[in-house]
UniProtKB/TrEMBL annotation:
<dbReference type="Pfam" id="PF10262">
    <property type="entry name" value="Rdx"/>
</dbReference>
<dbReference type="InterPro" id="IPR036249">
    <property type="entry name" value="Thioredoxin-like_sf"/>
</dbReference>
<protein>
    <submittedName>
        <fullName>SelT/SelW/SelH family protein</fullName>
    </submittedName>
</protein>
<keyword id="KW-0676">Redox-active center</keyword>
<dbReference type="InterPro" id="IPR011893">
    <property type="entry name" value="Selenoprotein_Rdx-typ"/>
</dbReference>
Amino acid sequence: MDNTMQTAILTQLPRPRITITYCTQCQWLLRAAWMAQELLSTFRDDLGEVALRPGTGGVFVIEVESEVIWERVRDGGFPDVKAIKQRVRDRLDPGRDLGHVDRAGREG
């Protein structure tokens, strides 16, 4: 199969959706948008979309295909971007190397 056909097939496959629900009362839009940008940059060819969903009451939840991978109250605050990238990777492609994100903390 040539590269053009492979690319056409890959672009037709459904790709996962990530949803970040953030509290508008707490003004967490910028935090949610920053995390969305980081995920889209790292997983640019693997994601169908990253959606920002406004909420209230201190909510901050990140889901991959409706599976909660981070919840602010349950998980003890806000995640760092490294943790979120690792959790998304573990859900989408566990064998994938995230480069410096995976090596930070293991060296030295």
